[in-house]
Write a structure and sequence with these properties.
Elements: E1 6-7, E2 13-17, E3 23-27, E4 33-34, E5 49-51, H1 53-76, H2 81-92, H3 109-127, H4 131-138, H5 149-190, H6 194-213, H7 217-228, H8 240-247, H9 252-260, H10 262-266, E6 271-275, H11 280-284, E7 289-291, E8 294-298, H12 299-331, H13 333-346, H14 366-375, H15 379-391, H16 396-409, H17 413-423, H18 430-433, H19 437-445, H20 460-464, H21 478-481, H22 484-492, E9 495-496, H23 505-509, E10 513-514, H24 518-529, H25 533-544, H26 558-575, E11 592-594
Length: 596
């Protein structure tokens, strides 16, 4: 990790003088770039670091879900490729985006604010001061004499910006290393088949383009110099007229200016000189000016060479991973290879069309929803089912999450209309439901209205990185968005013991219950507090499904949780109680060492 030194564009830095006299950089721009390593070096060398198996799996799954989000946006044709790159660029800088919901951010603003709040609280406790002391210290007309606390508050205010800078830089530095680890893990996972190599390369290139466009011009020029050996050249007088014609060919206003004042068009434009054989596609389309075997390109055109270099390096690296994979399969069979194979197998649905509930043999009946919500559904969907039944309404985010979940669980469109019309009665009636906006949205998400797009249910990463629920809303991940007291109470709730899907409903309701122990509650809350939300969900599953191995792979989506719960119940039913899993009670696997 020592090779990663976060920097920011010079125009976005503000210097803060620390008590020791050294200058600390506070990064106002979220697009902080590492000097060496990672994506800044086109992932040519893996980052060095140590992560637990649990963290390694979380990073890999989040990377897959990030690439799947790109696949989904392109597949649904909700935006052009250029617009999608702008979305990634905006998310990389911490700006609000339309579709990504934070999945492309380097560091989650919620996590950053939470970490800073915790560190500020600990710093105040260290200096033995309170918020009221800071307020009175800053008030010009002091009514209360702080005495000795005045010096403590002054010391606190001097250390505060230094602490914020250190925390922010540490989180970004870790994010860069995590990004490199997840990229190389996905290389190993997707190097086996041509279709997966092609899929991985296409979406990684899109992600790289978005991140490059988020950089300042000076940082982009540094990349071009480092990887393509290109630097801006001095414009010669005899180049001005042809360059003005080249630059203005796609703009009517510039064409008029180029006829009378070509120097005005060229002024301020960065020009690069490259051998013409490096840009044959630009020469063929007459988009560059060629003189003496040299093609004069604009900055945007020069970036295409950087993107081609990234794609070439990635394709070469994937071929090298093919050769290295057998050795990894031998040495890391239990810890790494099994997980990577499973990740690819689960990701196969990415290249497939969303399933139609009508075409599956495993349909979900309306009368099964209530007992299945209590026994088999993940906590996020169980909360939304409870909220819908108690409040008789779900707002858009929660309605979309729960509706698409039920659709992929096997609820047909006809039954979905009937189910929601019976329960969404706060603002409408069952008779008017079909013609209301709520009825239309259900048909729209099932692909029978509007663009006829059969929408997929959001995966865990999308839900976790989604917006914080506000008053009257119920959506998101309980392990991420619920306050600790509410989460603790929710986890402690007794729930029916999971039984197979084909069991009689009355038998289900009369079955014994499962209670999470205090030790398991503490473990779940600890993982949630540490930011390992998927791991907390897996621990909750293990606590409510006795005998399930704690070190199993993380769930990719709420529907994966639901399917695994049904599978577990069926296996227990067949085994009549079953035996203890072979790996239960063993020590957790050692941490994964990356690049060492």
């Amino acid at each position: 990790m020592s090779g990663f030194q976060p920097i920011a564009p010079s125009q976005t830095r503000s210097a803060i003088l620390s008590p020791g006299g050294s200058t600390v950089q506070i990064h106002k721009d979220y697009c902080v770039t590492p000097r060496d390593g990672g994506w800044f070096d086109l992932y040519q060398v893996p980052a060095k670091g140590e992560r637990s198996v649990q963290e390694f799996e979380e990073l890999t799954l989040r990377r897959i879900e990030m690439l799947a989000a790109l696949q989904q946006e392109e597949g649904l044709e909700r935006m052009e490729k250029a617009e999608l790159i702008k979305e990634i660029s905006a998310a990389s800088k911490g700006e609000k985006t339309k579709y990504s919901k934070g999945i492309f951010e380097w560091v989650s603003q919620i996590d950053l604010d939470s970490r800073l709040f915790k560190e500020e609280t600990e710093l105040r406790e260290t200096h033995k001061i309170q918020l009221s002391d800071i307020y009175h210290h800053r008030t010009s007309n002091r009514i209360i004499d702080l005495g000795d606390k005045s010096n403590k508050v002054s010391a606190y205010l001097k250390e505060l910006p230094v602490m914020k800078a250190n925390v922010t830089n540490a989180m970004y530095e870790r994010a860069f290393v995590d990004d490199s680890i997840s990229h190389w893990a996905c290389r190993l996972a997707f190097c086996g088949e041509h279709k997966w190599r092609e899929w991985f390369t296409r979406h990684e290139e899109t992600l790289f383009k978005g991140r490059v466009h988020a950089l300042s011009i000076s940082d982009q020029q540094a990349l071009l110099k480092k990887h393509c050996d290109l630097s801006p050249c001095e414009i010669q007088p005899d180049w001005i007229v042809p360059l003005a014609k080249m630059i203005s060919q796609y703009s009517y206003n510039l064409r008029k200016t180029a006829q009378h004042a070509p120097e005005e068009v060229v002024r301020g434009t960065t020009i690069y000189s490259v051998p013409w054989e490096m840009v044959p596609f630009l020469v063929r389309e007459r988009r560059v000016y060629v003189t003496n075997g040299i093609a004069l390109t604009t900055h945007t055109q020069a970036l295409t060479l950087l993107f081609d270099k990234f794609k070439t390096e990635l394709e070469t690296g994937l071929k090298q991973c093919i050769k290295a994979r057998p050795d990894i399969d031998t040495k890391e069979k239990d810890r790494i290879s099994a997980f990577l194979n499973k990740a690819v197998f689960q990701s196969a649905s990415i290249l497939e069309k969303p399933r139609d509930a009508k075409s599956t043999n495993e349909l979900l009946d309306i009368e099964d929803i209530a007992p299945h919500a209590r026994m088999h559904m993940p906590p996020c969907m169980r909360r939304m089912d409870q909220f819908l039944r108690s409040e008789r309404h779900l707002k858009f985010d929660g309605r979309f999450q729960y509706m698409t979940f039920l659709k992929e669980a096997g609820l047909t469109l006809e039954n979905a209309m009937k189910f929601f019309s019976e329960h969404m009665t706060f603002k409408t009636t069952p008779a008017k439901f079909s013609k209301s906006e709520y009825g239309y949205s259900i048909r729209y998400n099932y692909g029978s209205e509007g663009k006829k797009t059969n929408y997929r249910a959001p995966n865990c990463s999308t839900i976790i990185m989604g917006s914080q629920p506000r008053s009257g809303q119920c959506h998101g991940c309980p392990f991420r968005h619920l306050p600790e007291t509410q989460l603790k109470s929710f986890v402690r709730e007794a729930r029916p013991y999971p039984v197979p899907k084909n069991s009689d409903t009355k038998t289900m309701l009369l079955h014994k219950t499962v209670q999470v122990s205090e030790e398991q509650v503490s473990e779940i809350l600890k993982k949630s507090h540490s930011g390992h939300y998927s791991a907390a969900c897996r621990s909750y599953f293990a606590a409510t499904h006795p005998g399930y191995p704690k070190e199993s792979s993380l769930f990719k989506s709420p529907n994966a949780y639901y399917s695994m719960s049904l599978q577990w119940a069926e296996e227990k039913e067949l085994a009549r109680g079953g035996g203890k899993p072979a790996n239960q009670g063993t020590d957790p696997p050692p941490p994964v060492r990356i690049g060492q």
